[in-house]
Amino acid sequence: MKDGKVRKMKVLWGGLLVAGLVALGGYAQQAPAPPVSPTPKPAIAAPKPATPPPAPANAENPDKIVLKVGNRSVTVGDLDYFVASLPQQNQQAAKSAGRQALGENYAAGLVLEQQALVDHLDQDPDFQRQIEFTRMQGLAKAEVQKLYGEITVSPDEISKHYAAHPDEFETVEVRRIVIRSKPANSSAPPAAADTDAAKARMEAIRKELAAGKDPAEIAKEFKDANEGFIDLKTQSPRLAQLGPEWRDTVSKMKEGEVSEARPVSDGVVALQVLKRGNLDLKGANSEIDQKLKNERLQAEIEDLKKKSVVCVDGAYCAPPAPAPPPAASALPKQ
């Protein structure tokens, strides 16, 4: 049973490896993840690549040759580089399969590559186009990383941005209250009487919370999640991160206040504001630094485009024609 599982893992890993070899040979590598920010992300964001962890004391010599396929020699560094270029979940599969499986399947990829060269598949126009495209992507990502690494933001600029955009850093601690008018897993629409009953119960809970009743006591009144619930573990999002349907309402609420019930597909929901606050400058420092760098990076890319983008075919590059006006029958009645 164990051997069968190992064989299955090797087959799976082999497929991943051969697929990965295509990307490796074509210069395509995973781009670093863009920085997380509640503000809209620019079209291209390129944080500095993470510093690789230090090699263990007993690490093997990366130049040591461990595999030969035809006239190709493969080193420890080659295999380590390949595994590190895979997505995280595939890296774990490679480690679980073991070095022998890695070597065998890497050799399979090289054998296929060499046979493809014998068959002159590298001369195929579609393959040449693919290689050129992946090369362009790889070099573009490398240039983005270079440009990003050269951008600096001063502490004074960060402080000014923080002071000029207070709304971006306002936080709010909220509690969610949900009353079901039908089971959560039911596709049938709730009856009007059930919806009215859910609204009435929510109004009663609003009054109980306003009078200071313990939320834990209210939570005991629900049989299960199909009936409803009140969050005992509150959430503290940024105000800017709330959906537009709630942002304006919550921004006007006082601490302790409960919103009016709002209908959802299976009942009604309300929010209680418990506390307001602001992310301090120290906590916002890294986020602002990344945001300003990304803005400048995008500006540099746009500047490069303005200097070099040329469209020879006027018909192809012309702006799209405006949409035709709606038919007379579709116009609203006066």
Structure report:
The chain is an alpha+beta fold. The protein folds into 2 domains: 2-136, no CATH class; 167-278, Chitinase A, domain 3 (Roll). 49% of the residues lie in helices and 11% in strands. The chain contains 11 helices and 6 strands. The chain has helices spanning 2-25, 76-85, 88-97, 99-118, 125-150, 155-164, 192-210, 215-219, 244-251, 281-308, 314-317; strands at 65-69, 72-75, 170-180, 228-230, 262-264, 267-278. The strands form 2 sheets. A 4-stranded antiparallel β-sheet has the order 4-3-6-5. The chain has a two-stranded antiparallel ribbon with strand order 1-2. Helix 1 packs across helix 3, helix 1 packs across helix 4 (99-118) and helix 6 packs across helix 10 (281-308).
